[in-house]
Amino acid sequence: MQFSPGWLVLVFSLFHSAPRAPATVVEDFNHVERCKDSLYMGTPPRGIIDAKLKKICQRYADKPRFVTLYDPQKRIPVYSAYSFKKTEGDRRVDYPWMYEPQLADVDGNGNMLPFPTGYLHMKFEDSQAVLDDYSDVVLYERGHLNPDQHQSDPHDRASTYTLTNVVPEIREFNIGPWREHEERVRVRLNNYCRGTAFIVTGVTTTGHMIRRNNQDRVAIPEDVWTAYCCTDYDRNAPHDVRIRFPSQAALAKNAKEGNKVNEITVQDLENFLKTRMDVDQNLQLFYDNCISPSPLPLYLHHTI
User: Fold this and answer.
1) Are 26 and 44 in contact (CB under 8 A)?
2) Residue 124 contacts residue 103 (beta carbons within 8 Å)
3) What is the average per-residue pLDDT within 106-117?
4) 219: which strand partners?
5) Bridge partners, 98 (sequence order)
6) pLDDT reading at 119 higher than 80
7) CA-CA distance, 225 to 199, in Å (whole number)?
8) Contact at 8 Å (CB) between 259 and 172?
9) CB pairs under 8 A, 24+ apart, for 9-17?
10) Contact in structure between 79 and 45 (CB atoms under 8 Å)
11) How far apart are CA 71 and CA 89, in angstroms?
């Protein structure tokens, strides 16, 4: 039986066509190419049980940059998780603010997009925050969960300027204690983390909302928390630094006063979040609690 050349070309194209860009809102971070690179051991925090939350693989310029667990009803992220990149810590402010088309089923290739002019009342307003939600609010600023100072590549930095990565933070807290802590972590990981550091930063809420046009629009966090994991670190670091590896967490009130950032263990943070978030008792921010992998194979463990 003979086949025409045209038929063979058709069959070949069906089996070898270029893969479509994955949708940004995904069932599982692990199922999206390279999305899991933002997570320690490719594993997201476990134990968060709200089925309404959306998993976003934050794509910019056709590449996954970090991941966000997003609440489309509160219109803020529950957390953003990313890999830390060594950087000088300078802050750019000329990137355009972006939105997430996939949250609103807007056709696209999976990339976040800059807000269009005249976007008011477009359908993505129902599923996420827009610039107008923050424009007339005096007390609050757009606070990054994945801050651009923790990224080095220009595209990685630009990708942090999506409203799906920010929450309303009290101005005095955002530019004061929280920014100081982000800088402290940046310097610590720059100097003493030898491998890749993974960071998860999130919030808790109690029901307070930013309102616009007499409607509840954006949830206001009560607490802001963060934790990092770096299993390959400098064992010769000063003691006060070494005790903050391989993992460390921090917690603070999103408030004008009483907003000191307290460094605590990851386990203490998890215990706190069990009382403040819709999570189960198996909450775990990092796979296997960020325990450093042993450099020795199992059959040699008896020698140490």
Assistant:
1) no
2) yes
3) 81
4) 209
5) 114, 162
6) no
7) 11
8) yes
9) none
10) yes
11) 29
Identify which of 238, 149, 155 has the alpha carbon closest to the alpha carbon of residue 186: 149
* Sign of the CA dihedral running 259, 287, 165, 65: positive
What is the full DSSP assignment across the chain?
A: ----HHHHHHHHHHHHPPPPPPPSEES-GGGSTTGGGGSGGG---EEE--TT-EEEEEEETTEEEEEEEEETTTTEEEEEEEE-----------SPPEE-GGGGT--SSSB-EEPPTT-TT-GGGGTS--HHHHHT-SSEEEEESS-GGG--SHHHHHHT-BGGGEEEEEHHHIIIIIHHHHHHHHHHHHHHB-S--EEEEEEEEEEEEEEETTEEEEEEEEEEEEEEE-SSB-TTS-HHHHTT-SEEEEEEE-SSSS-PPEEE-HHHHHHHHHTTSSEEEEEESSGGGGPPPPSS-GGGGGG-
Kindly indicate the confidence band of residue 87, based on its pLDDT and cuts at 50, 70 and 90. confident
Residue pair 156/144 in contact (Cβ under 8 Å)? The answer is no
* Contacts of 95 by beta carbon, 8 Å cutoff, 6+ apart: 148, 157, 158, 160, 161
Reading the block at residue 136, the tokens are 């007339």
Facing residues of 142 across strands?
A: 168
Quick one: tokens of 261? 């950032």
Q: Which residues contact residue 235 at a Cβ distance below 8 angstroms, ignoring those fewer than 6 apart?
A: 242
Selection from 198, 184, 170, 193 nearest residue 257 by Cα = 170
pLDDT in tens, 206-263: 999 999 989 999 999 999 999 999 999 999 999 999 999 999 999 999 999 999 999 9
Question: Residue 6's pLDDT is what?
Answer: 43
Residue count of the chain:
304
Q: Are strands 76-83 and 98-99 parallel, antiparallel or unpaired?
A: unpaired
Going 36 to 77 to 27 to 269, the CA torsion angle's sign is positive
